[in-house]
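User: quick one
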Amino acid sequence: MIHSKTLDPNFKFLIAQEPGGENIRRCFSCGTCTAGCPVREVTDRYNPRRIIRMAILGMKKEVLSSQFIWLCSSCYTCFERCPQDVKIPELMNAIKNIAVKEGYLPPSMKIQLELLSSFGRLLEITDFENEKRKEWDLPLLQEKTEDVKKILKGLGFHREEKIEG
Amino acid sequence: MKRRLKDSHLNSQYTLFLGCTVPVRAFNYEISTRKVADRLGILFSDIPEFCCCGYPVKSVNHYAYLLMAARNLALAEEKGLPLCTLCSACCGALTEANHEIQEDQDLHKRINDDLSRWLGKRYEGEVKVTHFIRVLQQEVGEKRITAEIQADLSSLSLAPHYGCHYTKPSTIYRRVEDPENPTSLDRLIEVSGAKSIAYENKLQCCGGGVLAIDEEVALAMAHSKLEHIRAHQADAMVLLCPFCNIMYESNQRKIEKVYGKEYKLPILFYPQILGLAMGIGQEELGIKMNRVRPTELLKKINKKAD
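Assistant: Done. Structure below.
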């Protein structure tokens, strides 16, 4: 049951202001996205048509706190097929960006941010990799860069202690 | 870009962008690419300071993603060469960031203000981004590749896996090929002399995009494709993205365990296949690093009779 009192009619406008969310109000719920979605094919926990409908209705808390918004695999199949150019994977990212601002960051994404902050890459380049590169006569890679940390800190969307764990 | 097109020598020179996954988990992709490129006269220049392309933070903060991408593009710009990626997600993320920056002056200015303030860098928006397989298809071309073929791969049936970010979103790639019916990898497989097979749901996503969020879902997606390929008794799957490789090769044993099945399907990067066709030794192509040993496949390759 959806209670109209709990709905936030401004949610769709908030999403439309976020990069990637601009076309949300074009959606007429045809379901082309869901029909061709490879994630939907293996689990019914992800249903893009349903998520967009919930967002347009203003079910802000339900959408932002959900795990399902994180299940888009960004394959862009729906992006190519959507008759209304809703750009669904970008729309999902817009919703996720808002969710993060509201404090909903999945643990695995937090770990990824920590890795990026520490090494500048998702996977650490160690002496092992560079030794191997030497054996193959390949240019060595810089093992660490502080630049990603500087970017994340500069944007201040995460406090240092949160990123560094 | 016009400046570069005039000089044909510079056209075959690229800055190689490895990304996070290739140097740690798909080293065979890198070395086979370098061997094949060398044979075809493609020169790579390296930048050891490259960081992650930015793709993983796109879902967390779009602007942080753009800054990370712009930092890499700024480094590449200093070299004055087009950027060639091996990972399709890197290619998509850098191409898309490039478009956004080039098309929005206010955003471009904001990016440069922050790049210079925090990192002492600046990006003019001049770098061209491409994927190594696209370089083979578009810049090198079938004719020049064919001239280098020295082994007979005609007994091989290979299942091409395009993955997603190599063709989609088609808007950022200026629709270089139909995302619903791509043919470039099929063509390149045929050029190597092997047979490229058609199979059900050929364009399905590997699931890598949700691996960190929900492993069960990701494995289910990869499993479904392994099933479709098995139905056609392919000698191997051929792909062009290191993250797709994680799903189909690194996780193949796990998928076999979860679903109680056995695939033993060799997964090869396209440059490995092309390298074999060019008569380059398997050692030099990093075949030993392939987790599913393509023993039977290698037995089917013959020296070309003159």
